[in-house]
Amino acid sequence: LYVTTDRSPDDIVVEMFERGWDINTLLSNKSWEFIDAYSLKMDVERGALGYKALLDLLRKIPSLIKVGVWSAVDTFSSLIEVFGFGDAKALVDELVYAVRGSGGLHLLLLVEGLHDDKVTTALAHMVDGFFRFTLDEQAAERSGVMNILKLRRADYVRQLIPYRIVEGGLVIETATRVR
């Protein structure tokens, strides 16, 4: 499940196509599904709908989380901006409860620098893993470093792990095991 809050699903499909990712196959075989929170968010911002309509859509997401289903909310920052941290925090509670029963990988993407330390610390406390990806815009190829700030039930040493963005996705190359 890919919950889009900042751009339309069509814009994301175009961007993925430009990177060489075959999103149409994933959509047709139901390996990938968009939940368009962006359109509802725009209606809320224009005053055409109350924010309850968007909140109702987002509250359905935990019921869609099942074994083998992974998810991403791009970006969770937008939801904090629309709802405030209290309602956004309640959504995280519901999502964490659902995903702990199903496993898998579930991402809540934040825009770095948009939230104060109290908000990011509270979110890091609630979730199982908290990672910071930094992209090197100056590099010849799209690359950066990943910093693991928290990983539930893991004994790890904070480290910077280099990554590259390639046609097939994200490539992480380490000489040591990330646990």
Please describe what this structure looks like:
The chain has 179 residues and is an alpha/beta fold. 42% of the residues lie in helices and 23% in strands. It has a 4-stranded parallel β-sheet. A 4-stranded antiparallel β-sheet has the order 5-6-7-8, with no helix packed on it. The protein is globular.
Could you spell the SSE succession in H and E letters?
EHHEHHHEHHEHEEEE
Query: For the report, how would you describe the main beta sheet?
Result: 4 strands, parallel
Helix content: 40-55%
Strand content: 15-25%
Shape: globular
Radius of gyration from the CA trace? 17 Å
Separation, N- and C-terminal Cα atoms: 26 Å
- Give the integer mean of the pLDDT values: 88
Q: Please, how many helices?
A: 8
Instruction: For the largest sheet, list the strands in their spatial order.
Output: 2-1-3-4
Sheet/helix structural class: alpha/beta
- Which segments are poorly predicted (pLDDT under 50) over 5 or more consecutive residues? none
Number of strands: 8
